[in-house]
Amino acid sequence: MDGILTTSSTQATAQVWLDDFNAALASGDVTRIATLIAEECHWRDILAFTWDLHTTSGADAIARRMVPTLAQMAPRGMTLASGRTSPRRVTRVGVDAIEAIFTFETSVGPCNGVVRLVAEHGTTRAWTLMTALDEIRGHEDPANGRRWQNVDWKRNFGGENWLDRRKKAQAYTDHDPAVLVVGAAQAGLCIAARLTLLGVDTLVVGREARIGDSWRRRYHALTLHNETRVNHLPYMPFPRSWPVFIPKDMLANWFEIYAEAMELNVWTQTELTGGDWDAAAQCWDVTLRRTDGTERRMRPRHIVFANGVSTTPITPDLPGLKDFRGTVRHSGDYGSGMDWQGKRALVLGTGTSGHDVAQDLCVSGAAEVTLIQRSPSLVVSLKEAQAPYALYDEDVPFEDLDLLAISFPFPIYRRSHQRITAMNREADRVLLEGLQRRGFRLYFGPEDTGWQIMYQQRGGGYYFDAGCSQMIVDGKIGLIQFDDIERFGTEGAVMKDGSVKPADLIVLATGYEGQAASARRLLGDEVADRMGKVWGFDAEGELQGMWRPTGQPGLWFLGGGLAQCRIFSKVLALQIKARELGITA
Ligand SMILES: Cc1cc2nc3c(=O)[nH]c(=O)nc-3n(C[C@H](O)[C@H](O)[C@H](O)COP(=O)(O)OP(=O)(O)OC[C@H]3O[C@@H](n4cnc5c(N)ncnc54)[C@H](O)[C@@H]3O)c2cc1C
Question: Among 44, 212, 483, 583, which one is least packed by beta carbons within 10 Å?
Fold first, then answer.
């Protein structure tokens, strides 16, 4: 976000503010804390003060939220982080500030923070503040330079070797895991890796034949839409030789290598078919069914739904569609455009899948491809869509980038996305005007905040243009509006003007059911009503029910893009570990 300048005085300024902040926290005085905070200030806490994710705005409100936490959490020793990026002068969403990464301690363990300082009324005050629990003292992540010691058995020739232990751990013949993770793709693997390294016994189940099949099954032409440099899984970055955009099968194969290398316990071809919460025992009673028909009941204390936001297709009940004599497919089962050479296709939906399927059909030799637009959609060129990741271009270590990425409290995050969206619109002006001339209805997100906030609110509704938009502009791919369709008939779409748009194939690129809907189906209404909303923002701007407690004890959710899964799997793992240790309820 904007520019950067490093000077020596920034260090001193930042440390003075941190010293004052230490003293103010030690005093427990609301007014004293508030004087260190700018009139416009936003504080995001990630488990450090509040054991949850909270965003608070305004000096007085921030101080009032901090003070009641001080007795229990005892935050202290704020100091500039050694070995991390030094304080720098930056411009973030148009505001010049000193940005400093700091560390501190609480009664739970070491924490990290990011503060952005501005000059106000002749003093230095915080404009944004983020505080995050890093580790639980005494239960540190061994990946942080604390390699585990295997001296006890490495030369025990008569006993178990590593492979024996791995097989035993995977089999769960004589015990159940503490955590059952549902879904063996990026979200499931990330949380399993984090928990396993924290010493929490974790089993991942996935109903498909191979780890990564959720990606393999996607359409033939799919390549990731965001760049490799932001997509690493925790602990094991992709090889440096990998392409800028990873092809889907390459990613899927990496997931298998990852699970093996990170020593994760994964059962494939195993589906969670249902479960009940045993309140007396404070654990779940779940049924797992394998594709060979056998069942296993387990009593884990936690379930993490990593079941994907793109797993269960939504197939709308469209008038007359059952009369259509051609083939109807959801975009998730569409396969390859090569199967439809010389045929005519209608593709319903103008999100990423709809556009990608239409483009694939067209370049594969379909005779005629027409997109059907139901509601206005956001279109941004693939190049401009990388703008939210500009932070990852800054020349600082990767773990600092991940810390900075979560350091923008929601009001600043929203403002930043409004700026990015405005810049994208200008950069893509020729393309967008061309689309409008073809009748394409454009949208720029709620309050023009762009695609990333749309993803977090509704899981889609946008397209990163990888060539399809120009094909629409050039008339190679047709476009009709859903509102102009009367109904579907035997031959295709029957338009309100009486004409028929004929087709051999109708692809429903109509999206997927959310994670919460699957949880309701599997765990029942009582649990689902207790768990509350999942996904979408709460009043503070934090995602509801994602990587934080739901209303149902022992029920958690993780999902999203690769970067989100990497970053927030740590946040979720710390909360589960803390409950396993009895540190927090
Ligand atoms: C077309 C498309 C392109 C995308 N491109 C990108 C991109 O470029 N970059 C990016 O960061 N994100 C992208 N995403 C978004 C996101 O990264 C993917 O949807 C990703 O697959 C999500 O990973 P996940 O682990 O949350 O869930 P999924 O990959 O959906 O995996 C969930 C798994 O859980 C399994 N499962 C569900 N229910 C059960 C059950 N009851 N028992 C056992 N197993 C179960 C499913 O079978 C599935 O294998 C894209 C999504 C789509 C649809």
Answer: 483
Measured at the CA of 470, the angle between CA 467 and CA 475, to 5 degrees, comes to 125
DSSP state of 68: G
Is the pLDDT confidence value at 1 over 90? no
From the alpha carbon of 187, which atom of ligand 1 is closest?
Answer: 25
Q: Is ligand 1 within 6 A of the CB of residue 226?
A: yes
Query: Measured from the CB, is residue 223 less than 6 Å from ligand 1?
Result: no
* Under 8 Å between Cβ of 396 and 229: no
Average pLDDT over all residues of the chain: 94
- Per the CB < 8 A criterion, the answer to whether 248 and 223 are in contact is yes
Cα separation of 491 and 320, whole Å? 11
State pLDDT tens for residues 236-246. 999 999 999 99
**Å from CA of 188 to ligand 1 middle:** 10
Percent of the chain with pLDDT over 70: 96
Q: What is the pLDDT of residue 155?
A: 65
Q: Which pLDDT tens digit goes with each residue over 493-510?
A: 999 999 999 999 999 999
Q: What are phi and psi of 271, to 5 degrees?
A: -120, 135
**Token pair 């993490």 in the structure block, residue:** 304
Residue of 582, 544, 545, 558 lying closest to 192 (CA atoms)? 558
For 376, 395, 540, 554, 574, the CA distances from 531, given in Å and listed in that order, are 32, 41, 19, 10, 20
At residue 3, does pLDDT exceed 50? Answer: no
For the Cβ of 66 lying below 6 angstroms from any atom of ligand 1, the answer is no
Q: For ligand 1, atom 34, which residue shows the shortest CA distance?
A: 183
185 Cα–ligand 1 center, Å: 6
H/E stretch holding 572: helix 562-581
Number of neighbouring beta carbons within 10 Å of residue 234: 22
211 Cα to the center of ligand 1, angstroms: 11
Rounded distance from Cα 394 to ligand 1 centre (Å): 29
Ligand 1 pocket residue status of 187, Cβ below 6 Å: yes
User: What residues are paired with 99 via a beta bridge?
Assistant: 88, 116
Sign, CA dihedral 103-108-109-111, equals negative
Measure 559 CA to ligand 1 centroid, in angstroms.
8
Q: Which of 143-147, 303-307, 522-526 has the lowest mean pLDDT?
A: 143-147
